[in-house]
Amino acid sequence: MVLTVIVALLSTALLLSNLASIVLASMGLKRRGTIAPPSGKAPPVSIVIPSRGVEPFTEETLARAFSLDWPRYELIFCVANADDPVVKLINRAVARFPKVPARLLVGDDRISGNPKLNNCVKGWEAARHHWVILADSNVLMPKDYVQDLMAAWGPGTGLVCSTPIGSRPDGFWAEVECAFLNPLQARWQYAGEALGLGFAQGKSMLWNKPMLDANGGIRALAAEIAEDAAATKLLNGLGLRVNLVASPFEQPLGQRTFGEIWSRQARWARLRRVTFPLFFAPEILTGVAAPLVLALVAAAGFGISLPVTAIGVLALAYLPECILAAAKGWHLSLRTIPAMMARDMMLPAIWARGWLSGAVDWRGNTMTIHTKAVADLEETPSGA
Hints:
Layout: H1 2-28, E1 45-50, H2 58-65, E2 73-79, H3 86-96, E3 102-106, H4 115-126, E4 131-135, H5 145-151, E5 157-162, E6 165-170, H6 172-194, E7 204-208, H7 209-213, H8 227-238, E8 241-244, E9 250-255, H9 258-275, H10 277-280, H11 289-302, H12 306-328, H13 336-354, E10 359-362, E11 365-369, E12 375-377
Parallel strand pairs: 1-2, 1-4, 2-3, 5-8, 6-9
Antiparallel strand pairs: 4-7, 5-7, 10-11, 11-12
């Protein structure tokens, strides 16, 4: 009986920690609104966008990048190969919006096993301004994109980031990706920031260029296979903070397959494992699997109905996630809870995969990530 009580308490503790993370995250998150353009003198900004391939929303994300409410900014698009099909779309957008200074740079600087970072080097070095944003090509920038990033910068800040918020899912597996990105990964990242454990996210990164250049420049981000992990460690060593924007930016998803989600999540798990192993180890306790199994074991010991127990645990786990998503204006649908259940069935396998070596796919590049934070590229790298 004592063991049954302990198991029940462990299940309760995990459910309470899940709820606490939602409360903490909600404190730092705001529903998306609109920040007015700066009324006074605003510093000019360089936005470096590494690109590779054409996606369903490429034309829209390009148009958004040229339509920002910031007085002075330049766009620097980077592709590794001149024959990439996205080149034609970028050139068309540059011609369509001639009032926004924009350039397309082609080439691949092999400074690391990270193909995205290699693609960014030339853009960073060509940036004309002291404030530089590294932005993935699939970020759907709102008009106040720069204002949001700048508003999060304060004393002691070394970097401002935004986690991606999945939107416009088309099909069940895209709903599962939303369940990964929004109420799970974004929630834990904002909860970590609330606890003073902020870490970088490579989707949108606002840098003070002189500061980073004084500490090794963009090449310093090659110290780890993931540039956001390298950024986190660099800034921790300098005693600077990573801040998150109050309203994270959208990433429209479109269609997704199970294989695409597995590949992406397995890669991220492997990267987290080799860069921050002590933080990765307890990830097995996130999601509903651990508290559900413990609750069912305790219920069997107490003679409580297993179906009723399961429904109770699922309600306590998923309803707060849905409330968080609704409060912040994130995607919700009738498939959200089934998608969360599919996500949580995948999490233990993804966590286990994170501890194994072997090849993973990174936007068409086959990579072998070793037990330390390095990787071998087995194909010619390109893109973000």
